[in-house]
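1st attempt posting a full record on here, be nice pls
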Amino acid sequence: MVAKVNSGKDIRGILNYNENKVMEGVAKCIHENLFGQEAEKLSFNAKLKGFENFMNLNRRATTKAVHISLNFHASEKLNQDTLTEIASTYMDKIGFGNQPYLVYQHFDAAHPHIHIVTTNIQRDGKRIELYNIGKNQSEKARKEIEEDFKLVKASGRKQEVAEKQATNIDRIEYGKAETKRSISNAVRFAVRAYKYTSLPELNAVLFQYNIIADRGSERSQMHAKNGLLYRLMDKDGNKAGVPIKASSIYGKPTMKHLEKQFKLNEALRAPHKARLKKCIDEAFNGKKSVTRAAFEYALRKERIRVLFRKNDEGGIYGITFVDNKMRVVFNGSDLGKAYSAKAITSRLSDKKYPAFTPLSSGEGSGVRPDFGAEQMIIDLTKAEVFDHTSPDAAMKRRRRKCSRKGKSL
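the predicted structure (as tokens):
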């Protein structure tokens, strides 16, 4: 079992997310605590009011909403009663047993998972401390529940192998998938899981799903207003279907959000540069030149994809590497002069290469988006209440550290 705890200010947004899933037929509210009525009979307003009755007891607190996801391995067959029992046990163990909460079972992924919506404001108006809840209470609860319910353990070789077997990246084919949901799920995963420092680098990840983040032409009103659309591409790489506004996707991966992410990711991806350079060096196998096919094949074995950037005349002007194992993206020039487009192409014996070959079904094991949970099934047991990939969360922690240093002077 993998547990993730997120906190925020807006309980309505979290509730809306889960209720929209119910309306789409891919989720069900299976359990309530302290609402005084069966879950399926509660209206949206009744659910919202149930939380607000507690949250309004503390006007000073800014963080009052808590969103938890519990994810189970695809091989586990867990019925509604078992999921409800696991949810209740988990909430008791992390100290939320006397809080109002709702449990939603989601059916939009290959693995069983539930979402729990709650608040950390208690009956007396005091807050339940959330700092380090992921590392401490949640981690302890997870391990105990895995033992009690005989679940696949989140740590260890067994879980690692199971995850690789259960998760494969899939292209989204235009006309064969429900567009908005497919785009939203893939975008949410890519934005949160990968480390990229520009929109073209993010697009290098999204191209693997046949998706492109589109700002419009430089002269367009959308571009001038910093707008952003996500849309599918057809098999020929042309834009297809109805685009989705960034602001309409859960988590709002807008340009404003991404620009913060670009700055944060610059440092977060740095530790993975050495591995990528080593893999590229080894792909040439000590030779002065190799074929493009041999070069790409060697990198694919390390789950690294290559994107050659072409201009309108067909000339190569850039190269981007997507490391799907470490989930980082680098332009060749960022790795060093020896890894630039000019340097790499000069060592390829054949000079004709497609800009990018989308992943075939089954390739890229371990990087499929989690269609329903906020992130795929990865070992999140070290996650705290903070989202460590969020620039806003990182800035808050940085300011807190600075404040502490100031007080000690």
